[in-house]
Design brief:
- It contains five helices and 34 strands.
- It is mostly beta strands.
- The strands form four sheets. It has a 22-stranded antiparallel barrel.
- A hairpin with a 2-residue loop joins strand 13 and strand 14.
- The longest helix has 18 residues.
- It starts with a helix and ends with a strand.
Length: 684
């Protein structure tokens, strides 16, 4: 980024400081004393902590105890049961979240509020380099409300928060957890641990995880009947998803210095992942075999990432602010596509990032943040199928966001300025983007909340959308970008309502209705042509409209003392249209119902999830049939051994065929069949 660009952004940041008088207060959840009662707060969207039931956007929080008892899956698959969230579902080893029909460069996946600097947004067959099993908690924000993270969060944010850099001493000098589980459908197993040691001021952390699965069993042949009929082939009678095995390991350590001043610390992490890509094949032009090219074996991806982080949280007393956060990181990422025993395309990405926040929280009615963040990323693709040229991306952003809470009503607003520069051989583009948000809420009682928020977000095109030009085997297409693209602009309105359970009501309800209009929406559309025996897809800009809703409700059917039987249900729906027709891979509506029983030792539930048929299609899509999945789960806290719990689940009880319409390869990849899994966790 040029010196003049930096000065423009910096002066804008100073202006925001002067105008706002409200600073952000991201009080990191991990910095709270472990003995204090934990209030359910969210820190990702604004950096200052806000109670989950006082947010004007839809947010889910998954805690470590929940994550440990969930199936051993990648990030997108793990979150896909949440309302409004689906999985890219390309392979068990590669899944990213799709939020309200938006994916890729419009959904930001973070690790402790910092970017991952991997290649997962480049292609759906590329895995996220952070595994959900590393998390202490995962925060999922839908929609563009997370203004402090810029235009790449226009669809939503998933923030994986770990405790690798400890913000507080260990309880009684040593605490941690160990978890393990095994599954039948893929002969899989996984195990993980994390350990925190030290009463302070020095605190050491260690963590690690291992997951290994074989090709999983399927209820029907992996190739859909719709695809075989369309191609005039016999139905697929297989019972195994070939080349779906995974082998993942990750380990890390951190050291922090903790005191009344706050904390400061460093960490390092290594991730290695080897996974198969079902249906991923590479074809050569006719005649290549005679020139010595042999038929290539199944494609696997060998991913390696090394990450170093510095993070601090300092308590200060400086006018309107009471804390300062600073974080910086360096990431070295590489993944190699292995075609049988041969090395195919390699993707390299290394980057440096920093983020600084001045925060105000717990000082009267006003909370707020002002901050600055920057990123430099060098990306390189090497090989015959490197469909994107090497490039360097530099970003700098300044932002301010504040919240006035008068008790029964309040307002919240923010402003962000971004500059982005993308450079490649013979190519240089600069983008300056401005985003803003404004919202208001009303609380007629302690258990009810109503809010409305309006957001205008600008997103600069990515290097892929600008520069792609070549065969993309991950999606089975030849992709072409457009170097002249303009900034994508989105306008979003969201209406929110919460009804909370209290001593007078056993009923809870949560509703979110939203609409978004995009100018210069970047979409990948088929042209009808072929090149290198692949259909040609062209990135184009058009106008697009999305609307939808997410509903969640629950009621206690029976309660006696600390024993409860409860019914919970969710519903979600999203509709996407552009000037060129329906937006591709929009997921169908879904409905989930769950009946659960809980007491101090037992937690059990039966859950049924129905996903509708999707027949609103682009030119190259096939319809996706509806399906119903039923799961049975039970967990028991062992009375004899404090901190130990065991759990078991039967997933897809009726061995139902299920395909995720949002997946590029849903017609050659079916979800796993009936699966019995069991595990345990120990917390100390």
């Amino acid at each position: 980024m040029t010196g003049s660009s930096f000065k423009i952004a910096l002066s804008a940041g100073i202006s925001l400081i002067a105008l706002s008088g409200v600073a952000q207060a991201q009080s990191q959840v991990q910095a709270q004393n472990a003995d204090e009662p934990v209030k359910e707060v969210v820190v990702t969207g604004s950096a200052y902590a806000v109670s989950k039931d006082a947010l004007m956007s839809n947010v889910d929080v998954l805690k470590q105890a929940q994550i440990d008892e969930m199936p051993a899956r990648g990030l997108g698959d793990m979150l896909s049961d949440l309302p409004g969230v689906r999985s890219s579902g390309f392979a068990p080893g590669a899944s990213r979240p799709i939020i309200r029909g938006l994916d890729g460069f419009r959904v930001l996946v973070l690790n402790n509020g910092m970017g991952q600097v991997d290649a997962s947004a480049v292609s759906p067959d590329h895995a996220s380099a952070t595994d959900p099993l590393e998390a202490q908690r995962i925060e999922v924000l839908r929609g563009p409300s997370a203004l402090t993270y810029g235009g790449n969060a226009i669809g939503g944010i998933v923030n994986i928060i770990d405790d690798r850099i400890a913000g507080a001493p260990a309880k009684d000098g040593l605490d941690g957890r160990v978890t393990a589980q095994a599954s039948s459908v893929d002969e899989g197993y996984q195990g993980a641990f994390n350990l925190k040691a030290g009463n302070g001021p020095w605190v050491l952390t260690l963590d690690g995880l291992k997951r290994k699965t074989e090709d999983y069993k399927t209820p029907v042949g992996p190739e859909s009947r719709r695809l075989t009929d369309a191609e005039g082939e016999e139905p697929d009678t297989g019972d195994t998803q070939v080349n779906s095995a995974t082998d993942l390991e990750s380990y890390g350590a951190g050291l922090s210095y903790v005191g009344d001043f706050g904390f400061i610390g460093f960490s390092a992490k290594q991730t290695n992942s080897l996974y198969g890509v079902p249906g991923h094949s590479h074809e050569h032009e006719e005649g290549e075999a005679e020139e010595g090219h042999e038929e290539e074996g199944p494609v696997r991806i060998d991913l390696k990432q090394t990450r170093y982080d510095f993070r601090s949280h300092l308590n200060i007393d400086s006018g309107p602010f009471n804390s300062l956060q600073f974080a910086a990181g360096y990431t070295d990422y590489e993944h190699t596509e292995l075609e049988g025993d041969e090395v195919g395309t390699r993707f390299l990405s290394d980057g440096k990032e920093f983020r600084a926040n001045l925060i105000r929280q717990g000082m009267g009615e006003v909370s707020g943040v002002i901050g600055i963040n920057g990123l430099t990323r060098d990306f390189e693709a090497i090989g015959a199928e490197a469909f994107v040229p090497s490039s360097t991306t530099k970003e700098l952003g300044v932002f301010s966001q504040g919240r006035l809470d008068k008790g029964n009503w309040g307002v919240e607003g923010g402003l962000r300025l971004d500059q982005k520069k993308i450079s490649s051989a013979g190519f240089d583009r600069d983008f300056t983007n401005t985003s803003a948000s404004l919202g208001a809420f009303y609380k007629p009682s302690d258990h009810s909340f109503f809010g409305a928020s309006l957001t205008r977000s600008e997103r600069a095109p990515s290097d892929v959308e600008l520069l792609a030009n070549g065969p993309h085997a991950g999606t089975g297409s030849y992709e072409i970008g457009n170097a002249d693209f303009d900034t994508e602009v989105g306008y979003s309105l969201e209406l929110t309502g919460h009804w909370l359970m209290d001593e007078h009501s056993d009923f809870t309800f949560d509703a979110h209705v939203y609409t978004s209009k995009f100018d210069n929406f970047i979409d990948l559309r088929p042209t009808g042509a072929e090149q290198d025996a692949l259909p040609v897809y062209q990135y184009v800009q058009t106008d697009a409209d999305f609307y939808g809703l997410e509903l969640e409700g629950g009621i206690n059917l029976w309660a006696r003392g600390d024993k409860t039987v409860r019914f919970d249900a969710t519903y979600d729906y999203v509709h996407g249209d552009s000037d060129l027709g329906p937006v591709a891979r929009i997921p169908p509506y879904s409905v989930t119902g769950k009946v659960s029983y809980t007491d101090p030792r037992w937690t059990t539930h039966i859950e049924a999830r129905y996903a509708g048929e999707q027949d609103r299609l682009t030119e190259q899509e096939l319809p996706t049939d509806s399906y119903t999945l039923v799961n049975l789960f039970a967990a028991y806290k062992v009375a004899r051994f404090e901190g130990v719990s065991v759990f078991a689940e039967v997933r897809n009880v009726f061995d139902e065929e299920a395909r995720e319409h949002a997946s590029f390869n849903k017609d050659i990849l079916v979800q796993p069949g009936r699966n019995l899994r069991a595990g345990l966790s120990y917390r100390f």
